[in-house]
Design a protein that fits this description.
This protein is α+β, with helices and mostly antiparallel strands and about 110 residues long. Helix content is about 25%, strand content about 45%.
């Protein structure tokens, strides 16, 4: 039986920016079948995507929106490992990514 899990974290940065981080995955028998992690800047109740990694479009890819909206394919065979690695990367780097994203918008 598949089970979908969704966790949203709201974080306020020292700059006053508000960031929403969404973690979603679908698992069956302990194996992740589908997942998405999204980092978004929140302003006036609207969001702008900063970073996304997901398994949509039939393959695992990420998008670093301060660089390009084009998806970059990732080379992972095991989605459990990919989700763990990317979650750790997001939690370590989201503040820096928001800073890069905002610098590119100006």
């Amino acid at each position: 039986m598949e089970r979908q899990t969704h966790v949203t974290e709201i974080r306020e940065l020292p700059t006053g920016d508000v960031v929403r981080i969404d973690f979603r995955f679908v698992a069956e028998k302990g194996k992740i079948k589908d997942f998405a992690i999204n980092v978004a800047l929140v302003k006036d109740e609207k969001t702008e995507d900063v970073y996304r990694v997901d398994t949509k479009h039939k393959y695992l890819h990420e998008q670093r929106f301060w660089i390009s909206p084009e998806p970059k394919e990732l080379d992972y065979v095991n989605y459990n490992v990919a989700f763990k690695d990317k979650k750790e990367e997001v939690l370590k780097n989201y503040e820096k990514w928001v800073k890069c994203f905002k610098a590119k918008r100006v």
